[in-house]
């Protein structure tokens, strides 16, 4: 059996492409599988011309919410067409699962390299895997976040894409609910996580008044980005937008920069960092660079840093729960347990420092 059998219907897909994406041409359709995972499948589409596009769809047996996630991702990519945000251009969206069995969208095949997570570390492609070239990767990432933060989400048609009202006030309860859901999902008894209650309570008591609504990516990191092969480091696309919504873009910057060194201890690489953070700028350097590009006041950035640590810890605990349930290896559980504990240890340390 072909590994793409059941992923598309050639006749129906060709008819849909004819009607919706004439840029791909009108020759015989050639389809190949580029990626197949538990949350999405990516197929390449070519009709005999120079242009090859990518089709992204949920897998045949899709996790709950996969169809909605695919359509939300397509919507934000379409909205970003014509902006300065590096992203794959979205050519068309199909919500009708009668065409290939699931909703899908067709996007540009952006050429570039992405980082890889393996052996408990994020690896960058040479020559960006060490000095001096790796230093520019962090700036390239933040260039993308600056461009995203500067988009008027209402002007690009995303005014109903999220719920910006009381966004910060809702975050602690939202992620606590997710953490508590692992008991029902995986039979997980939970555990004591030092620093969790301290971080939760501090966030509830210190919501800033500097919130500014905008598009957030939701999972910013070099594995979810594509870069040029040649120097200097340049971001060509932010990818994997399934977690995007309308919130405060400062949360994206915090999510990314929490893995960086701090100017108060520049020789210390955060224990939870999976990057070669010794080769990157400090967290404060990225804050200043972002502020210069967006005009944002960074006086409350410690709050966003703590919220990102809290969110990350609550999310990653699901890997610990799955390992305890035998769904993942013990080694995987130990690895993610370390990341969760380090998230909350770092959060408690920051709270104790700022008071």
Helices and strands, with pairings:
Blueprint lengths: L9 H11 L9 E7 L4 E6 L5 E6 L8 H15 L9 E5 L9 E5 L7 E3 L2 E3 L11 H15 L17 H20 L9 H10 L8 E3 L8 E3 L7 E4 L6 E3 L2 H8 L25 H12 L6 H24 L5 H25 L1
Antiparallel strand pairs: 1-2, 2-3, 3-5, 4-5, 6-7, 8-11, 9-10
Structure description:
The chain contains nine helices and eleven strands. The mean pLDDT is 95. Helix content is 39%, strand content 14%. The protein has helices at 10-20, 66-80, 135-149, 167-186, 196-205, 250-257, 283-294, 301-324, 330-354; strands spanning 30-36, 41-46, 52-57, 90-94, 104-108, 116-118, 121-123, 214-216, 225-227, 235-238, 245-247. α4 packs parallel to α8, α6 packs across α8 (301-324) and α8 (301-324) packs antiparallel against α9. It is α+β, with helices and mostly antiparallel strands and 355 residues long. The N and C termini lie far apart (62 Å). The chain has two domains: 10-108, 2-Layer Sandwich (Phosphorylase Kinase, domain 1), CATH 3.30.200; 116-354, Aminoglycoside 3'-phosphotransferase, Chain: A, domain 2. The strands form four sheets. The chain has a five-stranded antiparallel sheet, covered by helices on one side. It has a two-stranded antiparallel ribbon with strand order 6-7. Strands 8-11 form a two-stranded antiparallel sheet.
